[in-house]
Amino acid sequence: MDPELAASFAEEWPRVVGATLRAFGSLDLAEESAQEAFVRAAERLAAGDPIENIGTWATTTARRIAIDTLRRDQVLRAKLPLLVADDEPQGESDLADDRLGLIFVACDPALSPEQQIALALRIVCGVPTADIADFFGIPEPTVAARLTRAKKAIARAEARFVWPSARHRETRLDEALTTIYGVYTLGHTAVAGAELMDTRLAELAHTLARALVAEHPQSTEALGLLAIIELAEARRGARTTEDGMPLTLAEVDRSAWGRQRVRDGLALAARALPGGGRFALQAGIAGIHSSAASWEETDWGAIATLYHGLKRVWPAPVVTLGSIIARSHLGPAELDRAAEDLRAMRAHASSEMRRRVSAALADVEERRGNTEQALAAFADAAEGENNRALLRFYDRAMGRLRG
Predict the structure, then answer these.
(1) Which pTM value belongs to this model?
(2) Residues in Cβ contact with 244 at an 8 Å cutoff, skipping those fewer than 6 apart
(3) Is residue 213 part of a domain?
(4) Which CATH number is 46's domain given?
(5) Phi, psi at residue 387, to the nearest 5°?
(6) Residues forming a β-bridge with 160
(7) Is 343 within the bounds of a domain?
(8) Is residue 16 part of a domain?
């Protein structure tokens, strides 16, 4: 796909899907019509026929495709009352609401958390099914089947599709937070490719988190999620060398962090932390890392305490991993214990989590002076990894250990 069209696709996809979904009430029809509209846009541009406004053109075209599809299925008459005729270009606030509205569509209570995140990645972000499969560490056909079941479940639950109302959005807030966090996780470290991050997904999650806080300004969990993303984005420019090599928090130049964004993130974290929820506590952890003047001055005791609280409200594998890493910095005895805990955790981890645990174990073993064990752990972390930036990092680390 032409780079300019690819950028337009990324930007306009939620608008086109959202408008078509509101008009016709079918996720399948909205997604398929949007895809075909962008294919036609690519063909038109390749033929030298310019398009003044890709979003408006694709929305109008997607609706016409949907009507043609319904006509072929002989159900147009029943669907015509649902049609929306407004084809005027939308403003930025309308686009943000389309994106957030689609998140709430994906967070239908009839779906499992895994289905919600998978559906959001597909219909809000346009992420290919193969990349979603990599994110979950499961086969692509499994994800495709999960998406199909999700769409059918929503279709069964809604006799007539209704764009999520304020009441729907309030009851689905926790699911929306989890889903946006999942989108940011996928953007923060891309599942594949040459770059460490998928900046499009990271920025989309940031936009969604800001919109969620604007809609729910008193929610400490929404504030916590935005704080997490704000603090991570403040550090983005220092995460890699100029040629894209990832750096650890111990290696980064903290003077390159966006200081205003750090201050904004810390202020959000301070407002969120009294809520004591999982995003509020993670914001507190991110805040301690971001406020430390250097790696050596990191308050690992405070971080370990916050992880202890986080495990009570969110006993997820990633939290267990973070807790072990934090404790490993509290002295030699805890460092030795961390090695044992990480090996035990790795034995029962999914493929994606196993790589993360192995990377942590490599660091622990290197700090214990166990070069061979560290090398083996780095090799295990690299096994099956499709992010080439991370693979370069592991290669560099192994080269350093070999001397």
Answers:
(1) 0.83
(2) 194, 195, 196, 389, 392
(3) no
(4) 1.10.1740
(5) -90, 110
(6) none
(7) yes
(8) yes
Q: Pick from 90, 121, 139: which residue ends a domain?
A: 90
Is residue 57 included in any domain, yes or no? Answer: yes
Residue 399 belongs to a domain with what CATH number? 1.25.40
| Both tokens assigned to 306 | 């916050």
Domain encompassing residue 345: 310-403
The distance of Cα 302 from the centroid of its chain, to the nearest Å, equals 27
* Residue 89, both tokens: 């270009």
CA-based torsion, 270, 271, 275, 281: positive or negative:
negative
Tokens 């044992």 belong to residue: 340
- pLDDT tens across 327-380, in order? 999 999 999 999 999 999 999 998 889 999 999 999 999 999 999 999 999 999
Residue where a domain stops, chosen among 63, 90, 117:
90
Q: Tokens 């053109």 belong to which residue?
A: 57
pLDDT given for residue 349 in this prediction: 93
DSSP string, 207-265: HHHHHHHHH-TT-HHHHHHHHHHHHHHHTGGGSB-TT--B--TTTS-GGGS-HHHHHHH
The number of domains in the chain is 2
pLDDT at 53: 86
C-beta neighbour count of 109 within 10 angstroms: 11
Indicate the burial class of 352 (C-beta count within 10 angstroms; 0-12, 13-18, 19 or more).
middle
Range with the poorest average pLDDT among 109-118, 216-225, 233-242, 387-396: 109-118
- Helices 220-234 and 259-272 cross at an angle (nearest 10°) of 160
Contacts 24+ apart (CB under 8 A), 293-300: 293/254, 294/254, 295/249, 295/250, 298/249, 298/329, 300/326, 300/329, 300/330
Is 174 in contact with 221 (CB distance < 8 Å)?
A: yes
The number of beta carbons lying within 10 Å of the beta carbon of residue 190 is: 24
